[in-house]
Amino acid sequence: MNTATGRRETFSSRWGMMLAMLSMAVGTGNIWRFPRIAATNDGGTFLIPWLIFLFLWSIPLLMVEFTMGKSLRSGPVDAFGRLIGSRFRWMGLWVAFTATAIMFYYSVVTGWCLRFLVASFTGEIPNAVPGAFWQSFEGSTQAVLTHVTMVVAAVALVYHGVRGIERIARILLPTLILLVIILLVRAVTLPGAHIGLDFLFTVHWADLADAEIWLQALTQNAWDTGAGWGLVLVYSIYARAREDTTLNAALLGFGNNSISLMAGILVLTTIFSIQPDAAADIVGAGNNGLTFIWVPQLFAKMPAGQYFMALFFLALLFAAFTSLVSLVELATRVLVDRRIARTRAVVIVGAGGVIFGLPSALSPAFFNNQDAVWGIGLMLSGLFFAFAVLKYGARRFRLNFMDSEDSDFRLGGWWRYLMAFVFLEAVILLGWWLSQTLSGEGWLESLNPFSEWSLGTVLLQWGVVLAAFIWWNRRADRGKVRV
């Protein structure tokens, strides 16, 4: 609500909204995670299930979020309550909290991108000792400073409302795409770049029988499109009345995955051009290792590599920052729905972001723990969205909210089967990821709640949060707490 005029804020146009949403969706998962996951999972073989799950996971959930936000004009908590009953508001609260918990450490990642951008311009990243600069920075007071800087910058932007978000998206997203294209052109013209292209696009058909590749493809779609995060739901609250949610969801999904594919090409062609036998190093590198340790060393070996390195980290910073802005906006919207003034809500979210992000800025182990716990938590969020549609009635949801006169494409009866399949996917994906937390040292170690990566630490943190939310929901329904 615009308090000055009493009118609800909206995006100025479909393209303004889509630029803001695509800015939200395109983040570090596209530029640093996708190349590594694609390379680790047999390159071109991975691309086939990755494309399939764009249609069987990302776009359906994006449709659901678009529809709930536009139709119900509420953040996740109230949207779930209005759609399937007040006793299910805890599900919306889980969706909102999971994204907010990610915000607490994602600001740290955004700060890393800022620091490496500065270092690229100043030439601070040493060529002789791979990883030395990263090791001196990770967990340092400099990491705290960059974390705080990025939270303050995101809060300052969100403070100006959705039109402020739209204005910055109109600048940053086209600039990001231009930077990626420039880097892509340079990468594919490097000597030996064809090795990287062959690696990324060669399909080994027999490997499609490997369930791990399919699960990784589904996971990548879940993490890099923003489907099921609640972010699209919040942005679509500000959509104009005549918006086609089906078409917008498809545009967002295709746009996001197109940028992922371009990022995969530019990273892998650069890597294989400099180091033709790089496959083993890619598979063994984590997100941080690939992006902040290995890639700078590769750029250092290129002609004018320092400048292309600066362009790479500028693109990465833009991608990270626009995603951080959307996370801040979601948390702000939840407080606004609780009848807290927007200006005050933004300040509360900013203060919380600074304070609760400090442990991740100072401790790599804590960062890794939170990334694991709440990254998997997104799978539960996706399950809740699918459950909400099935609980309401998939056919009823489609007829009441989706197949409107504004729709260029009408859904058919197959929608109910698609949503049932998405629900099944979420259950399988959630079970698979929880199984990855099991330790080879036995159940005792697997259930250790203080381990950096274990079933115990996931279940403990989830259990505390879910118990608190369900307790709040019951108290709110009885009128004993403010709703």
For this structure, what is the CATH class? Mainly Alpha
Question: What's the number of structural domains?
Answer: 1
Strand content: under 5%
**Low-confidence runs:** 1-6
Helix content: over 70%
Summarize the structure in words.
It is globular and about 65 Å long. The longest helix has 34 residues, at 89-122. Mean pLDDT is 88; it is low at 1-6. It has helices at 14-25, 28-40, 44-72, 76-84, 89-122, 132-137, 141-159, 161-188, 193-201, 211-224, 231-236, 245-274, 279-284, 287-300, 305-337, 342-362, 364-392, 394-402, 414-436, 443-446, 455-477. It has 483 residues and is mostly helical. 77% of the residues lie in helices and 0% in strands. It has a single domain (14-436), classed as Amino acid/polyamine transporter I, CATH 1.20.1740.10. The protein contains 21 helices and no strands.
Question: How are the secondary structure elements laid out?
Answer:
Elements: H1 14-25, H2 28-40, H3 44-72, H4 76-84, H5 89-122, H6 132-137, H7 141-159, H8 161-188, H9 193-201, H10 211-224, H11 231-236, H12 245-274, H13 279-284, H14 287-300, H15 305-337, H16 342-362, H17 364-392, H18 394-402, H19 414-436, H20 443-446, H21 455-477
Helix pairs in contact: 1-8, 1-12, 1-15, 2-10, 2-12, 3-10, 3-12, 3-19, 4-5, 5-7, 5-15, 5-16, 5-17, 5-21, 7-15, 7-16, 8-12, 8-15, 9-12, 14-15, 15-16, 16-17, 17-19, 17-21
